[in-house]
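Readers of this paper often ask what the protein records in our data store actually look like. An entry from our holdings is shown next, in its original layout:
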Amino acid sequence: MERKKSSDYSHELFNLYDEYAHGEITRREFTDRAAKFAVGLGAAALLDSLRPNYALAQQVAKDDPRIKSGYVDYPSPKGSGRMHAYLSRPAKPAGKLPGVVVGHEAGGLNPYVEDVARRLALLDFIALAPDALTPVGGYPGDQEKGLELQKNMDRATMTEDFGAGVSYLQADPGCTGKVGMVGFCFGGGVAVQLAIQMPSLVCAVSYYGREPATEDVAKIKVPLQLHYADVDNAANPGRPAFEAALRANHVDYTVYSYPGTHHSFHNDSTPRYDEAAAKLAWQRTVDFLNKNLR
């Protein structure tokens, strides 16, 4: 399938789509404001071209014999009670392995995030990708419907649900007990929040996640790795104050920004995907996880 490139779109259009994807404007507002970019195509068709195409995102087959993957439920007593998640691990591990919780973007546990979990399993991690939409029926198979479902959910409860996923992995008989988190967009913000409120989390990686409350930054006692897009009206506005708070509180953190990229540049199901930046960011992520979890 042909993949549209980020260079096929303007920065302004990507930022407009981000507003729509994050529920800040309606579909009608998007199509009205995007009309000037839709010459010869139509605003509705333009929107379709910007939506995820998950067939493009599969790097590791669901039935890859090197790994064992499937769905599990786990308890979340301080959150929603019970959660649904995708779990992936090596088929023949050589001893106990560290764990990684994978935090999805807003809209639920989509196929791209499940593939990220499988990628981690191939690298000898046990990866758990919870579905924050479990209490409202789970990921509905459509990102926009998932965004509508998530819009009215309680952020604190969802964070507790991901924290329960950390505890679930820590108790897994095949896990060393060392667990980190990698999150994207919404999940990136959750990863940093869990670094604040869950001392047993060993490390956290955030891709274009929103910043926590400044007064909470002093509570972070674990290493952070932060990835940002160059052009991103969703995550970048809060970045200067967040980094200032990290420095002021002597938090162990590393930050990377990728020139010419847009929000969600790691997501290879969308035109915002930037292959070079995504591969570099992912290698940095894997190196960070190996350093802190092995």
